[in-house]
Design brief:
56% helix, 12% strand, 5 strands, five-stranded parallel β-sheet, Rossmann fold, single chain
């Protein structure tokens, strides 16, 4: 049960929410889970504006409070998280949506990314890590641990492995697709450069060109395009 994962999540932070900051909507059917997440994200620049326990209530709360970030239980109302993500995305297209659960299946992550999710965190990651994830998705980052990123990329590429076809479909060169793969793996420009034997500046140039070619504004959108194209 999720409740069994709560102590670590709630223990890292006990700071009172302040009047200003990123606006957060928490959606989970368990009041104890909502309370733990609320305590975990308490920080001067983070503010919980609402917490609800169902998909219908989430839609109403999203329209009423216009949150910057929605923290959403993956199996809300016994429905796949991607269905709720898709509904919330239509209502509030500019909000970042982060799914959380005790664990995810690779297909859950892929489906939710295609629906518009921008992050996935496992309950129990700790308050500081959760706060970093919330701040990151607002900046356009993809909140997905390196291990999970690798698992999802492996899951997608193992099905057909069409590197050249995918590159053509996305309008990228083979090198740019390799950089995009590493972005999806959670690497920074410095790490990508080291992995490919190129300079950090060259890696950054590839990333900028990828964003331009794909017509997106940030890494999270680029990775989502990669997953959708796969």
């Amino acid at each position: 049960m999720i409740e069994a994962q709560l102590p670590q999540l709630a223990a890292d932070s006990d700071t009172a929410n302040q009047a200003q900051g990123l606006r957060i909507l928490i959606v989970d059917e368990h009041p104890s889970v909502r309370a733990a997440i609320r305590r975990a994200v308490a920080a001067r620049d983070l503010r919980v504006v609402a917490e609800v326990g169902s998909a219908d209530a989430a839609g109403l709360a999203a329209l009423r409070t216009e949150p910057d970030v929605i923290l959403l239980e993956n199996e809300l109302d016994d429905a796949g998280g991607h269905r709720v993500v898709r509904s919330l995305r239509k209502l509030l297209p500019h909000a970042a949506i982060v799914l959380f659960a005790v664990s995810f299946a690779e297909q859950d992550v892929v489906d939710a990314m295609q629906a518009g999710a921008t992050g996935f965190v496992e309950v129990g990651i700790g308050a500081h890590a959760l706060q970093r994830a919330v701040r990151g998705v607002v900046r356009g980052d993809l909140a997905l641990s390196g291990d999970w990123a690798r698992r999802v990329v492996r899951f997608m590429t193992s099905r057909d492995g069409r590197h050249a076809t995918l590159a053509r479909g996305l309008g990228l060169t083979s090198r740019e697709l390799e950089v995009l793969r590493l972005l999806a793996d959670g690497m920074t420009a410095r790490q990508i450069g080291a992995s490919l034997g190129i300079s950090t500046r060259t890696a950054e140039g590839h990333v900028a060109e990828i964003l331009r070619r794909l017509g997106v504004h940030n890494r999270a959108e680029a990775v989502r395009r990669y997953v959708e194209g796969s």
